[in-house]
Amino acid sequence: MLKPREAVLAVPLYHPPLAGREGLRLDFNENTVGCSPRVLERLRGLDPEQLVKYPERGPAEAAVAGFLGVPSDEVLLTNGVDEAIHLLCETYLEADDEAVIVVPTYSMYRIYAMATGARVVEVAAGEDFAFPAETLIERVSGRTRLICVANPNNPPGSVASREDLLRIARSAPDAALLVDEAYYEFYGQTMLGAWRELPNVYVARTFSKAYGMAGLRLGVLAGDAEQMKSVRRVASPYNVNAVALGCVPEAIADQGYVEGYVAEVREGRERLKKALGVYGIRFWPSQANFILMRVGLTKTDSAKFVEQMRRRGMLVRDRSSDHGCEGCVRITLGPKEHVDRMLAALQEVVEELGIAQGASPR
Amino acid sequence: MLKPREAVLAVPLYHPPLAGREGLRLDFNENTVGCSPRVLERLRGLDPEQLVKYPERGPAEAAVAGFLGVPSDEVLLTNGVDEAIHLLCETYLEADDEAVIVVPTYSMYRIYAMATGARVVEVAAGEDFAFPAETLIERVSGRTRLICVANPNNPPGSVASREDLLRIARSAPDAALLVDEAYYEFYGQTMLGAWRELPNVYVARTFSKAYGMAGLRLGVLAGDAEQMKSVRRVASPYNVNAVALGCVPEAIADQGYVEGYVAEVREGRERLKKALGVYGIRFWPSQANFILMRVGLTKTDSAKFVEQMRRRGMLVRDRSSDHGCEGCVRITLGPKEHVDRMLAALQEVVEELGIAQGASPR
Fold first, then answer.
1. How many CB atoms lie within 10 A of CB B79?
2. B190 and B101 in one domain?
3. B34: phi > 0 → left, psi -120 to 50 → alpha, else beta; which?
4. Helix A58-68 vs helix A242-253: crossing angle, to nearest 10
5. Are B34 and B264 in contact (CB under 8 A)?
6. For the whole model, what pTM was predicted?
7. Does the first or last residue of chain A, that is N or C, have fewer Cβ atoms within 10 Å of its Cβ?
């Protein structure tokens, strides 16, 4: 009888709540406005020839590499960052190897790592979700082949310092260190180019967040050219669709659009922090386009909160099941008008549920 | 020092000649005209909200399942058939397992299978590229976990009978049998639903060929619902882009477009066969949208032919490096006007190179 590999059967099911998302989308850390109008214009004017032909990744890859200021052979465009994670797991991990991740963090590191048969070593974030550099280094073993760090991390929005990341890369020269910079634009610090000194460092970027192109699926994996050759071996030559490839030059050309959006998000972040402070709701200072907050002590509390927000047209994400996030909800920031609406709903919900009464003291 | 897995280093590099494709594209078995105008219209009118949101595969998956006449849980939309192959390899193969393929065939089965660390067992096609059912069954071992059959096969265009495929599935109940029906529309016979009786049968389909949507990257994997659950575990929830998902309902609704195109291709196939017969050039009767022909005895001969065709604005594909294809070239068929141009160029090249003089007797 046909049986899937044991490792695949052990992979946890991951069903993000994508269906029926009616309301203001503050649940997936997407851009809540849209992509640059130049991207939209390019999409609408796309040469029909680009749809019928197999996509050619090369030219867009060169454009993105140029934008990042690195040579083309250090860059691979991927079908979203998920594919970059998948390819790194396939390149470096096999049964009996170990992958080290920080918890809580983005779900797909664990999923793709487990699918290879490797053991996933979870390192709990420190107090207030501080990056656990010391513990992580202690947990690196002779079998560690991949370390994944989202920086900023999701859902807490906390960051790892450059020094800590370099220290980890040095302590684990036999492991690839993926620094997932999906939220780079909201933070501003990068490990890009660190592979010149430490060839085990990889950086991932995405066009799904600040650039507002999540639907087009475009991720970037950057790293040492020699290591990258191996990653390319397991990637389909046709992994990225022609619409994403055709639009990305406009996306990177319109930096004004991205900068404007990021500035609005940062302003919104300050406003939400202030409001949460006033209500006495515990939250964690985030360097990304979202804030994690504790709206109660249990899953029931966070579920109630999410439901009350939903009734007011606000989609926010329950993160109660994440490590150390009991009773927590994550809210994505956007431009002023969206933050206005979210704050108005928040005030109502806080009053209705009595959260401001000190249910979750700071 | 960071080292990729041995299995990955053993994967052959695959660089299809995608760059600088100036001329009539008869080299990748693409549709040479374009996708349905309804697809193009949908793309241009796509709600910008679809670009900024993470794609939701469910509704399009249900539409495709409905079109194929199977329940949704038997269908997974993929980032082209390449991803379907990748996911099947990951689901069933690990080091020390065996994958069985027929040679010559599509390149990616071998690449993804080797990346898992499995051994790839090659079964040579028979006389005139006949499907080697007997030999294949003999080569199935206790370690065989995946068998890949392109039907029609590429590059020869030959087919495997339903009886042979069922026999293989029965002989190898511990292995998944992928029947890759990328060229189904030009052939008309399918194994869809065979998994009701034999749960190890999978079928792949694509929108890259007859539908003319290669740039959008949309493949279909169909199979037993229970088996499919495992495949879904290793797929990203966001593997297919929103443009492909948004356009596919129009593509399947416009069957008239596909049927018209397929009829033209079939007519062109007959015309090319007739011309090759007249020139005395050996070819193999194909059930797909291409014909493989022997234009000489060596790689030099086929390279010369490809170059002469290129000078006349015709891109055709040298298949000399494929098993049993020394001196062979593959030409994609299209509508009348494209076939007219191709045949005119062919006549010139045949004369210039003296191929019709009996260099490759039938």
1. 29
2. yes
3. left
4. 30
5. no
6. 0.96
7. N
Q: Could you tell me how many residues make up chain A?
A: 362
Residues in chain B: 362
Distance from CA of A344 to the nearest CA of B (A): 24
Chain B CB within 8 Å of residue A17 CB? no
Chain-chain contact of A18 with B54 (C-beta, under 8 angstroms): yes
Residue B6 inside a domain? The answer is no
Residue B7 CA to residue B3 CA, distance in Å, equals 11
Cβ within 8 Å, pair B217-A5: no
CB contact under 8 A, A2 and B238: no
Q: Which of B200, B201, B218 lies closest to B209, judged by CA? A: B218
- Where residue A279 sits, what CATH number does that domain have? 3.90.1150.10
Contact B326, B298 (CB under 8 A): yes
Count the neighbouring beta carbons within 10 Å of the beta carbon of residue A354.
9
Q: Which helix (H) or strand (E) holds A212?
A: none
Range of the domain at B136: 37-253
Mean pLDDT of A162-173: 98
Q: In the numeric block, which tokens belong to residue A170?
A: 């040095």
Q: Most A CBs within 10 Å: which of B218, B238, B239, B245, as the mutation test of the A interface?
A: B238
Would you say B354 and B309 are in contact if contact means Cβ atoms under 8 Å apart? no
Q: Poorest-confidence range of A11-15, A85-89, B58-62? A: A11-15
Answer whether the bond into residue A71 is a cis peptide, omega within 30°: no
What would the pLDDT profile of A287-345 be if each residue is shown by its tens digit? 999 999 999 999 999 999 999 999 999 999 999 999 999 999 999 999 999 999 999 99
Domain check: are B218 and B140 in the same one?
Answer: yes
